[in-house]
Amino acid sequence: MINKKNIFIIAIVILLIMILFTAYFLLNETKQTKEVIISKPVKKQTVQAQNVEIVFPTYSYDAEKLRDPFAPLIVRRQQFLKGTSPLENYDIEELKLTGIARDKKGSLALIQAPDGRFYIVRENDIIGMHKGRIIKIQKDRIEIKEDNKKVKYLKLSPEDKNDK
């Protein structure tokens, strides 16, 4: 049978072994960190160039008709601002022309947004995310001018023409 005195001696021996292992590993790590490698500075070498003409290739990039590579592919729609129409939150390609009506005062166009709502527009109204202005409403399409240079068209689909 193991008495209290033997248990006490075993506990002290285990404690001393743990202290010795801990001290050994701590001393080993400090020895490794004290080793420092000192490198000698390298002498700079100078190379003298001969009379050689170096020609670099020239490149030109015409991005007038190409997409800006740094522009994000996904554009978040802005919330409605006061005084703006809901059609200004959609790109022109997302809108659908569903009808055109003419009267003595001028022409009206019925446009369907991607959310399923319909809107009536006239000439000089602003639609699209890039502030496109409706230039002309013809009998089967409307002309939209964006950024004072791009002209886009929204055309009636064939099934909408047959409904007249």
Task: Note down, in words, how this protein is organized.
The protein has 164 residues and is of the alpha+beta class. Among the domains are: 1-30; 86-162, SH3 type barrels (Roll). It has helices spanning 4-34, 158-162, and strands at 96-103, 106-112, 118-121, 126-127, 132-137, 141-146, 150-155. It has a four-stranded antiparallel β-sheet with strand order 4-5-6-7, with no helix packed on it. It has a three-stranded antiparallel β-sheet with strand order 1-2-3, with no helix packed on it. The longest helix is centred in the N-terminal third of the chain and has 31 residues, at 4-34.
List keywords for this structure.
164 residues; alpha+beta; SH3 type barrels; four-stranded antiparallel sheet
Please give the structural blueprint.
Layout: H1 4-34, E1 96-103, E2 106-112, E3 118-121, E4 126-127, E5 132-137, E6 141-146, E7 150-155, H2 158-162
Antiparallel strand pairs: 1-2, 2-3, 4-5, 5-6, 6-7
End-to-end separation: 109 Å
Given the C-alpha coordinates, what overall shape results? elongated
Strand order of the largest sheet: 4-5-6-7
CATH architecture of the domain at 86-162: Roll
Low-confidence stretches: none
The succession of helices and strands, N to C, reads: HEEEEEEEH
Q: Looking at CATH, which topology of the domain at 86-162 would you report?
A: SH3 type barrels
How many β strands by DSSP? 7
Relative helix content = 10-25%
